[in-house]
Amino acid sequence: LTGKQLGNLELAWVIGFPDTASLRSSPVIVGSTMFYSPVETGRVLAFDVKTPCIKWVYDGGTQFRSSISYGPIGDVAALIVADRRGQVHAINARTGVRLWKAEGRHSDNTIITGGPTLYKDKVIVPVSGSGVSRGVNPNYECCEEHGAVVALNAATGAQLWTYHTMPDATYTGKTSRIGVKLRGPSGAPIWSTPTIDEARGLAYVTTGENTSLPATDTSDSVLALDIETGKLRWKFQALANDVWIMSCRGDVESSGPNCPDPVDSVLKDFDFGAAAILVEGIAAGGSDMLLAGQKSGDVWALDPDTGRVIWNQRFGQGTALGGIHWGMATDGQRLFVPINDPMPARIGFEPEPGMNAVDIATGNVLWRTPTTPDCSDARKARHGTCSQAHGLSAIPLVVDNAVIAGAIDGRLYIFDAESGETIFQYDTLRDFETVNGVAARGGSIDSHSVFAGSGMLFVAAGYGSFRQPPGNVLLAFRPKATLRAAAR
Question: In Å, what is the CA distance from 276 to each residue of 66, 95, 294, 446?
Answer without folding.
Answer: 17, 33, 10, 18
